[in-house]
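Students often ask why we bother predicting the structure of a whole assembly rather than each chain alone. The short answer is interfaces. A chain on its own may look different once its partners are present, and contacts between molecules only exist in the joint model. In this exercise we take two input lines together and write out one structure for the complete complex. Read the inputs first and try to guess which parts will touch.
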Amino acid sequence: MVIKSFLICFLGVILSVSAQEVSFSLVWENQSAKSLQLAGDFPNLKIKVTGASNFMAGKCTVFNGQTTFLPYIPFTNGLTYQAYAQDRLLCSFTPSTGDQSVPTITAVYPKGRVLPENFLKFYIRFSEPMEVGKFYDYLHLYNQEGEEVDRAFIRLSPELWNETRTLLTLWIEPGRIKRDLGPNRQLGQVLEKGKTYRLIIDGGFRSKQGISLEENYEKIFEVGERDEQKPTVDRWEISPPTRNKQESLKIHFGEAMDYAMTQMLEISDGKELVKGDWVMESDEVINFTPEKPWKKGSYQLAVNANAEDLAGNNFLRLFDVDLLKTEVESVKESWSVKFEVR
Amino acid sequence: MKKNLFVSLFAIILIFSAQAEDDLKARFKVGNLEIKAMNALDFGPEGILFIGDSENGKVFALDTKDTKANAEAADFNIASIDQKVAELLGTTPANMTISDLAINPISKSIYLAVTHTNGSSVLVKIEDNEQMSVVDLSQASFDEQSLEDAVAVDAKDRRGRSLRQWAISDLNYSNGKVMLTGLSNKEFGSTFRAMPFPFDGDQKMSSLEIYHAAHGQYETDSPIKAFTTATMAGTDYVVASYTCTPLVIFPASDLKAGEHVKGRTVAELGNWNTPLDMIVMQKDGASYLLMANSARAVMKIKLENIENYSGSLTERVEERSGTAGVDFIALPFVNVLQLDQLDDARFVMLQRKADGNLQLWTANNRWL
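Now the answer. The structure tokens for the assembled complex follow.
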């Protein structure tokens, strides 16, 4: 038997191997080892993690002198696997990506240093797709005395990730913000006006590839007044763009708004929606860059009534409503503002 | 003649039962069921498993074809189930999470929604306490329903997908309706959805705003963490527990599109605690709500007490981690993550033991 060892470089991905009984390769897709291919017919191929008592599930196909094993989830990077035919060890392998990009936190929204006492949610942007289901183990909030604030966040299961797992939404414990609920009455607000806090994300938090953040992330912020006002378009200032140019439309909200504002606005020229990208320049300012240059004419900017400020107050109602203060409830689905491109 | 009549009746019954099955699965298609994030499971009739997929923003109805009745199911008792599931998937417990557990009421098989830290999700089936397998979804028979309203003014990206991010926290099927709750990144509130099953394709879905009052003064909406359905005095109710502790009930008949539904707060079940899962069990003609919690033991509440509770929780609960409202009994089961009913007399729990390992085990109704 010729002993062959095989080193595969595929899409920048390296597979570390030792002496092996048969030739093999891993098939990679999106930096995940999706399947194992072996030279030879091994209809009874079985694979397990080294040290495991049981073999893993997967689909084994034999075709043209080649055996393919397709696990239900990709092989885990960093674990060592052993492939057997009956009791014969065919090969062992440790999937590892050649791309060892160290993940970083590229932004935390809101960006401002002062947040309202009834502040509701953070958004955390990562440079790489991150692991799921483990984030809260790495999350801390410390007060200015250096003590960890207990039960500051709601531990959502599942965590609230975007599709690429690069943006996480993080909620302050709502039971402690809502006035007169049990946690609020007994534990008080998470954040106290006039105090300084540190949001920490431990460097041990890993990317999907199993690579840890290089260092702890820290955001220091101060706590200001409670926000008990609904957002309103009356405070908005629009800087209209120039016609025949592809320049940005700039909207000043007059207050800090939730990062999800990028998904809550639409511009229409009266006939159809204007396509383009929304980017928060700061917590108070958003920019819209159209795909095509602006044309002269009247436009309508509409905001979804569910859009929120930093305290979860939307255009329809406050985050918690004091029934002793009578209030006429709005029922509109959106508000709009007109502007002209000249 | 008598025999002929019998045969005819039998044939008619067969036709009707076949018809009923056709009706529920008439829209099902066969293909690769690509689930991105399997977060919540519940069984409906005829072996249909409903799967909540947060990342796709969809509910799938999967025909498990697992419909062989099993009246004599053995107890499930699997130590270190997380280790065994991890080995089945070729990974380690540190790299995966069991998101939900559902028991097929016909076959008594257990289905687990398992998520790898790399984001992959799989459905694991456990039969007869020991046979564990991954359910192959590449040639599945299924239907699906989007969670977005057809008329929603949600922003779309350039490929027309909704930009809303979902975190489905619980899903239940009851009386021809799939109900689910969760959080959306876009707005705070009770993103509670109720949709008819079979899915109608027209997305005639109730998007409910469910409010609860706190001590008469403040009215707020909030995400519901866990819920179930229960019949009290002949009326079907949804019993729901919020992330911020109140337990509320509202009539299932209120589940109409566009309705502003206000739940009646019947209890606050203690701070430092998040409800995780709940089921209803019966014993000696009485019904009991069992609720698993993040920081407290499994709670048992007699539904009759909820039904009869007419208080409004006006008294302050001064004691730290205090509770108020209907009485509950703490069962000696701590760190229970998931619950489901095995049969009329038994329920199955997924419990984290003191050594950190997960155990799947069965308790009987002597605890009720």
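Check your guess against this: DSSP finds three helices and 28 strands in chain B.
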